[in-house]
Every structure is written in C-alpha cells, then in structure tokens.
Amino acid sequence: MSTNSICLLGLGYIGLPTGSMFALAGKTVIGVDPSPRVQAALSSGVASIDEPELQTLVTAAINSGRLRVQTRPELADAFIIAVPTPLDPTTNRADLSFVKQAAWDIVPVLRRGNLVVLESTVPPGTTRDVLAPILAESGLMPGRDICLAHCPERVLPGRILVELEQNDRLAGGFTPACAERAADLYQAFVKGAIMRTDATTAEMVKVMENTFRDVNVALANEFALIAERIGVDVWEAIRLANHHPRVNVLRPGPGVGGHCIAVDPWFLVESAPEGTRLIRAAREVNDAMPEHVVGRLAALVSPPAPIALLGVTYKAEVDDVRESPALRVAELAVERGYAVRLCDPHVKPGTPGLPAPLLPLEQALRDAEAVVLLVDHRAFQEVDVDLAAALVSGKRVLDARNALDRARWQAHGFEVSLLGSGDSPRPAGRRTERARA
Ligand SMILES: NC(=O)c1ccc[n+]([C@@H]2O[C@H](COP(=O)([O-])OP(=O)(O)OC[C@H]3O[C@@H](n4cnc5c(N)ncnc54)[C@H](O)[C@@H]3O)[C@@H](O)[C@H]2O)c1
Questions:
Q1: Of the listed 7, 147, 178, 206, which one is catalytic?
Q2: 424 lines ligand 1 (CB under 6 A)
Q3: How much is the pTM?
C-alpha cells in the first residue's frame, strides 16, 4: 500500500528535520505539535531548533506547500511519533506519558491500512506492550488491520540532516509485513541501508548503542580519575594506548549529557534490574564527574570567588542543554557559593533552567578569579587569549575538555589545570606514602 500523506507527532530535534525531509521527498506532511513555542516559530517560517542547515530545509519544505503545522492529528496514510521519552528522575524509569498521549491522539483518526511508526527511543517491549494495546482501542488490530513499527533514530545532533539521509537504519516491525511497509516509507529519502527486524529487537538495538557509548565514556572518565591520583596525564596515556590496533579509548570529560546517552542506559536497567551492574556503574561514574570538576575548581579558588564557566550545552556546537553536565557543574558551583557567570554563544538568552546569568564572553571573564572550560565549542578554542589575560584577574584555568591551547594560555601568565592530568594536588595520604618511600 502506498504512503502519500504522513501525520508526524512531535516537531522537535527529530520530528522537524524528518518531516521536512519527507516533504521534500514528495510526501504531504502534517506536522503536529501542541507547544506554543514550536507553533509560533513555525507559523512564521522559523525553525524552532538550532541545527546546521535546518532553517534552509524547513523553508524549502514550507515553500513546497507539502509541510503544514497544526496542533491536532488528522487523517493520513501514516503516523510517525517523535515525542520526548524523558527519564522520571525519581524512579530512573522511562516516562512514557508523551508516547501514550500521542498514541491516544491518533486513535480517533486511525483508519484500516494505516501505518504507525514509533521513532522515540523507548525501553524494549514498548511498541508491543504499550503502543499496540492503545492503538487497538480504535478497533483496528496492529499487524492485521494496521501496520505498526519501531524505527529508532541514530542521528548525531549537529549533523542531523546529513545523518538522517546517510545512516543505516532499522525498521522493526510488529510483524514482518509491518517492517516491510515501514522500510518502504523511509526509502523515500534514506540513502543508507534499511535493516528489517522485529520491533522489540529494534528497541533493544537503539538503547544498546547508546549504552555502549556511555559505558565507554565511563571507562575513559575512570582512567582520568586514576591518572589524576597517580600523576599521569590521561590524554597522553590515551593517545599512546590508542596506537594498539584493537583499542579505542574515548575522551574523558565533565560527564555525559543530552537526552539520549545519559538517559537510554536506564531503559535497559529498567528492563533487567538484576542483570545490569556494569551499565548502572557506568551511569554512576559519569554522573559523578560534575562533582569531581567542582572539586578540581575548589583546589584553584574558594567561594565566593567570581568564576567564568565557558559552555552550558551538553556538547560542542549545539544549543541543547538537556542533561548537560556543564549545567550540573554550574548548579553545584552556585550551591557552593561561587559567583558564577555562564557563557555560551549557542544558548539563547532566556533559556529556562540556567542557575546563573548568561553573559557575553567579555563580561563573563572580567575580573573572574578562575575560568573553567566545560564545552569545547570552537568559539572557546579560538578565544583571544590577549583579551582574556587583560580581563581575568585570577589567571587560573581549568580545562575539563583538553580543548585549550595550553602553551598559549601559559605564555599569557595563566596557570592551566587539565581534567585527567595529575597536576592536581594529591591526597595527603598518598603524599605521605611517597615521602616514606
Ligand atoms: N535529539 C536527538 O538527537 C535524538 C536522537 C535519537 C533519538 N531521539 C529520540 O527521539 C525522541 C524525540 O526527541 P527530540 O529530541 O526530537 O525531542 P524534542 O523535545 O526536541 O521534541 C519533541 C516534541 O514533541 C512535542 N510533543 C509532545 N507531546 C506531543 C504530542 N502528544 N503530540 C505531538 N507533539 C508532542 C513536544 O512539544 C516537542 O516539541 C525521543 O525519544 C528521543 O530520545 C532523539
């Protein structure tokens, strides 16, 4: 059965680019999002998120007449659900309320022969055990009267448009015929391979991928903590270790963020609480890194010193502050009594949830006692060190990303500390041991 019209629920980081791609591939797309912010932006033709080239794509999609935006779903050949699946912070379980609501929103407009695709990342079993029963309330049985599939997203923020088209992706069907129907839909613009499987396997694969990343970052972070204790530069150690043909240690940092890698491993823990010791430990290691960074800061300056924190987003060159470890560092520093100034050229003024004022670089640096680099945005790597030297009073820098040109900052009189490098003061016990030896 051909799919000409798509009703896409959730016009965020995933839904908006996906809907625009389908529109430009010739499908009629009804984009649905109840958010007044999203509605206001898109009704005036403005992409509601910051992603390279997205504005051009959205403008082209709207101008083609094949993408329109509204607040409620309507009849279509296919429905795609790309709504949030956050973590419930009290239980560390997936909050599926948005997915359930989106499914209930579709029920009145479902028709025989429709295809429903869940793109949101979910704990394994959700399509079968949560989504299918809600859709069946329409009187149409998934796998018999309608097709149902899970087609997870693998795109990297900052490269979403390229990866949407080029990445291989999964079509996980409620039945093999459902997988086939979903694969056929995505062929409209996907140039990568589309691999057919069942819905629960597709759900498992998606969360496994992000868990793999999280566990490996945790290992790099643990190496960094060890290196600091024993007086080794972990960056040099990793560089040397990665010469081994079968070793690829990732980069340590102030923690793991974004609403995928820091969240999805918990979906596996939720699925098998007794069998996920390693995954849980990795989450704990990564979640403890912001506290560690604030500990390193305390070795440089004490509260209430004014400090400039460079970077708020969860990674470089994006505007997304969800689950950002940099934001957590800022919260902890405010709690400890530092006069925190935040600076991030990618974050819009007025972004909710910031614990301190967001200032232009010069204002953030002026009379600061210390500077902490938390996100390796290019703008910070290319910062004018002459200007920084003229503004910053304390001349102390903590680089939590190994992104600054250390020699250049040192040449301007800065004392530069590096996360993962044994330049931090050693614990007293260790010093005594060495002294005895
Ligand atoms: N952002 C990424 O890089 C990425 C990558 C892979 C997978 N994912 C997954 O994709 C899903 C969506 O993520 P996102 O980053 O696009 O989220 P997002 O928060 O940017 O966007 C979700 C949108 O859904 C809207 N929404 C909520 N309930 C709705 C409903 N009932 N009907 C219609 N719209 C509704 C919200 O208003 C919001 O605009 C999540 O499960 C996420 O884990 C995201």
A1: 206
A2: no
A3: 0.91
Tell me if residue 178 is catalytic: no
Mean of per-residue pLDDT scores for the chain: 94
**Is the beta carbon of 105 within 6 A of some atom in ligand 1?**
yes
Which tens digit of pLDDT belongs to each residue from 90-104? 999 999 999 999 999
Query: Distance, CA 29 to ligand 1 centroid (Å)?
Result: 17
End-to-end CA distance of the chain: 78
Pairing of strands 87-88, 93-94: antiparallel
Instruction: Answer yes or no: is the C-beta of 198 below 6 A from any ligand 1 atom.
Output: no
**86 in ligand 1 pocket by Cβ < 6 Å?**
no
Question: Which residues are bridge partners to 343 per DSSP?
Answer: 310
pLDDT in tens, 157-170: 889 999 999 999 99
Give how far Cα 267 sits from Cα of 16, 94, 249, 328, Å: 25, 6, 24, 22
Per-residue model confidence (pLDDT) at position 422: 85
Q: Which amino acid is at 74?
A: E
